[in-house]
Amino acid sequence: MQHIPTIIDTHGSAEIPDELQKLGRHRICCFTGHRLKDLPDGGSEDSEGMRALRERLELLIRVQLLSGYDVFITGMSSGFDILAADILLNIPDIAPEVRLVCAVPYTGQIREMKTPRERSIYKQALDSAFCTFVFFGKYTDGCYKVRNQFMVNCSSALIGYLKSREKLHSGTAQTVRMAQKAHLATVMIYKDQIDEDLKG
């Protein structure tokens, strides 16, 4: 039976929707991380740094699955979000176990994808998602903040990637602070950990 994607317009609301309320926050984990240029080796797909990041992220996803999380929200941004979606959709023993939820800040976000592969994964995620939430019909100031607040509101855990342990003013760092304030179980990957993996 063909999967028919469910797309829901939130009209800019970050409130927990019925579709996720029924599943329960205790089952839901979200992701936050930098855009492609701020990932290891500038996000170059076949680089050692990106392979190390992918391995760490896959391991954390497997740990979450073993802990009872089976619903994962990706914010669908270029970089870490798309990497997470790729793992969830394309690792054979992971994909059947999860429900992917796409949190799209605005219609047309796909134009931000930096590579043909990212665009392909973006489309695959929308086609395969349990449901997709779209917050605004076009880019609007604050649309990413609404999306980030939505992900935190709906989740009880977060997996994130930051390039530095110093205080940053990026949207990713803001989302991590939101998650910590809301007492989400927050697990971070830092660039220095990737560097250590490569030395290892």
List keywords for this structure.
7 helices; single chain; seven-stranded parallel sheet; 7 strands; 200 residues; Rossmann fold
Structure commentary:
This protein has 200 residues and is α/β, with parallel strands linked by helices. The chain has one domain: Rossmann fold, CATH 3.40.50. The protein is built from seven helices and seven strands, in the order E-H-E-H-E-H-E-H-E-H-E-H-E-H. It has a seven-stranded parallel sheet with strand order 1-5-4-3-2-6-7, with helices on both faces. Strand 4, helix 4 and strand 5 form a beta-alpha-beta unit. Helix 5 packs parallel to helix 6. The radius of gyration is 16 Å and the shape is globular.
Instruction: Report the major sheet.
Output: 7 strands, parallel
**Would you identify the regions where 5 or more consecutive residues have pLDDT less than 50?**
none
Number of strands: 7
CATH C-level name: Alpha Beta
Shape: globular
**Beta-strand proportion:** 15-25%
List the domain count as a whole number: 1
Ends: how far apart? 46 Å
